[in-house]
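New to this. Please check this record:
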Amino acid sequence: MNRTIINLWYRVESVLFTEHTVVPISVFRILWGILMSFNFFEALTARGEYRYFNTVFHFRYPGFEFIPVLNDQWLLVVFAVGLITSIFLLFGYFYKAASVALFIVYLYVFSIDQAYFNNHYYFYCLVNLFFLFVPANQHFSLDHFWRKTKPIKTYRWMLLLFQLQICIVYFYGGVSKLLNPEWLSGLAVKTLYTNISNRLEWGLGQDELTIVALIVTFGGLIFDLLVPFGLMAKTRWIKLLSFCFIFFFNISNAITLQIGTFPFAMMASVVLFVFPAPQGHFRITQAVEKNKSLVIGLIAIHFAFQLIFPLRHLVVNGNVFWTGESKMWSWHMMSGGSDISAAFFLAERDEKDQVLQWHELDPSKFLNKTQLRNLGKYPALIPQFAKFLKREAELAGMTNVAVYADILVSRNDKPYRFIVHPEQELSGLKYNVSLKHNNWILLYKEENQRLYHR
């Protein structure tokens, strides 16, 4: 047994610490700098205006409420720094400082509002993190040409960081489809492409939509599950075929789904798989010898987390695609469309807990469309907003305030159902992040269609 473990350890060492070129990462750095620059330029213009500059309330990540939301002027500075550091990364100029600054700035913007959570942005955070540990300025950089930085030995683990993470994104996107009954039935895709057909004025009938849904449902599933193996294959024609499918898949997504820069990021990532595996001998220098156990340990921890954490919803009661519990950080891609109808109510009570007056509030006066839609997609956000409404009501002079809501959610054009009970007081709730179902989130099978009237 000990001999097996030792042999496995040396096999891992030989894979991770074989000397290897970082040319693919240097090329990817250039493409990544362009994408990050575009993202921060958008943040300085229309997207920032919509999400940050005219926003009354921000949903916070549990445990990270201490991170301040800066005022509009300082946010402009943050976005400008993000744009500048992205350009520095693009040209490989003061690379180490630029990569650290870009990671911190992007992570800060990501942490401002939980309602904007997206697997794409989560992936961007991880890629920015990886650049901190990889000398991606070894080639095609101003550091190399102007500053004459000293070349350092590079190893295969540096490339594997990016490669394995990208493969996990694809594969777990496929796993999420495989575990989603509404994807397998074609309902999720049919809903998506009905909306796409209407938006792009394709004029597809029900028969055509059914055929498209069938092709995309099983084509997307097979693509996600198999393309990671194609990317890592040693056979050139399999790798080339995988590249072709990736470009076709992501170009079609960019045209139809309008999901920002993510399809272009995944197409750019192809350069990381172009170079073949190294043919050289396994060599560890004295400097690397001191740190190899730490490197192997950190890589093992990261990818163990990436493989296990996305599956945590399997032990939580309820359908994750309805309750939203354990859905974040799990690479659930394209699980369908959601619509929400919501009205909030403030109840003023007297000392005997009798309702004196009801006040109805339109949540769209406080939340933008993205925040409001994700209030139904991620019910964990509801107590935060209820506490905000109660606090604002008390500041306005109301006393003994209770918050209720009629929140009806429709997934993939199915009938609207309550996601929380209309008679549930919301401001006193706390979302439990453990692997237990929060009972105040109604399970789909338990909810009926009876409407409540106040």
Observations:
- DSSP finds 17 helices and four strands in the chain.
- The beta strands are 338-349, 355-361, 401-411, 417-418.
- The radius of gyration is 25 Å.
- Residues 206-231 form the longest helix (26 residues).
